Amino acid sequence: MKSMFRQVFLHWLLCSCTTQVLGVLIQTAPGTSTNGVIVTELNKTVSLVCHINGSSYQDENLVWLRNGATISLKEGNTEGRSSVCITPVIQADNGATFTCYLSKNSSLRDSITLNVTYGPQLSGSEEITVEKEEALVLQCDIWANPPVQSVSWTFNNTNVDLEATGLLETTDGFNTKLSNGRAVKSLHEGTYECSAIHAIYGRHTKTFYVTVTEKTFKFPLFPMIAGLVVVFLTILLAIIARCQRIMKCFQ
Ligand SMILES: *[C@@H]1O[C@H](CO)[C@@H](O)[C@H](O)[C@H]1NC(C)=O
Ligand SMILES: *[C@@H]1O[C@H](CO)[C@@H](O)[C@H](O)[C@H]1NC(C)=O
Ligand SMILES: *[C@@H]1O[C@H](CO)[C@@H](O)[C@H](O)[C@H]1NC(C)=O
Ligand SMILES: *[C@@H]1O[C@H](CO)[C@@H](O)[C@H](O)[C@H]1NC(C)=O
Ligand SMILES: *[C@@H]1O[C@H](CO)[C@@H](O)[C@H](O)[C@H]1NC(C)=O
Fold first, then answer.
1. Beta strand extents in the chain (DSSP E only)
2. Average model confidence (pLDDT) across the chain
3. What separation in Å is there between the alpha carbon of 62 and the centre of ligand 4?
4. How far is the CA of 193 from the centre of ligand 5 (A)?
5. Which atom of ligand 3 is least distant from the CA of 105?
6. CATH code where residue 81 lies
């Protein structure tokens, strides 16, 4: 029993020694990583420091990759210890994987992935003018990490009556849209608000002030150009025919 315990203990000691002797590991500041993921937010700064763990490799060069592409490092920032700084953190850093490895032996490596949380970019207001019988489209960007929990629309401070207004609401992970192919002043003019609720960043809203105007007379540019082209071609053909007739006389 005792010897078995000793064996297990020795085995554990051996294993932990070998993992300690050789290795490349990334430390993060601020914060900690769990299972190789760092949770951070927009505009924050994340520092990553890569160490070589093992005396025989102490002065070897380290290489950093971001999503597989090499990061260029200043001189002196590669031997034995190397740091990279991500500042400010942007949306595109979400899901980015940073890898550090030993230049001499790329199997000695460590990786870390960023999880950048952000709320939907919804704020302020917009004035929308639409001619009657034209299409009315209101759109809100609800892209967030993690995704928003719920989305809703109001019209003149009450829930939008989709049936009465003939408005169509469509929502995917990126946008929520309220639309109608033919705007009607008595139905659609007023104040709209889209809201999204996020688990971390709370409620975000954007307001639209919609005005439905009378139809303006549109100059029929395209039919006019088409008409002019026809007239021009007719004249051209007439001239050509005439020339041919004249030329025939001379032959
Ligand atoms: C991040 O910084 C930008 C530019 O300074 C600013 O417009 C934006 O509101 C900031 N975002 C957050 C979530 O702090
Ligand atoms: C090597 O790693 C062990 C634990 O993983 C740690 O206690 C030790 O300080 C590290 N050595 C160096 C030189 O980083
Ligand atoms: C690279 O490191 C691994 C793990 O320590 C080791 O098994 C392997 O032999 C090394 N390769 C070279 C070429 O040194
Ligand atoms: C990122 O972190 C947030 C907050 O902790 C979590 O809700 C979300 O599931 C994480 N996303 C991923 C892809 O790990
Ligand atoms: C909504 O509010 C606006 C401005 O207060 C008003 O002009 C409009 O008639 C209202 N629309 C409906 C359908 O109640």
1. 24-29, 37-41, 46-52, 62-66, 69-70, 81-86, 97-102, 109-117, 125-131, 136-141, 150-155, 158-159, 168-171, 175-180, 190-198, 202-213
2. 85
3. 29
4. 14
5. 1
6. 2.60.40.10
Instruction: Tell me how far the alpha carbon of residue 123 lies from the centroid of ligand 5, in angstroms.
Output: 22
pTM of the model: 0.73
**Shortest-distance atom of ligand 4 to CA 115:** 1
* Torsion angle of C-alpha atoms 148, 154, 157, 160, degrees rounded to 10: -150
**What lines the ligand 4 site, CB under 6 Å?**
37, 39, 115, 117, 146
Q: Are residues 137 and 89 in the same domain?
A: no
- With respect to residue 16, please indicate whether it lies within any of the assigned structural domains: no
Pair of tokens at residue 202:
């709370």
- pLDDT at site 205: 98
What's the gap in Å between 176 CA and the centre of ligand 5?
Answer: 22
* Domain, as residue range, for 62: 23-117
Positions of the chain with pLDDT lower than 50, given as ranges? 1-21
Q: How many Å apart are CA 118 and CA 143, to the nearest integer? A: 9
From 117, 133, 149, give the residue that closes a domain.
117
Q: What percentage of the chain exceeds 70 in pLDDT?
A: 82
Same domain, 89 and 139: no
Q: Whose Cα sits closest to atom 13 in ligand 5?
A: 187
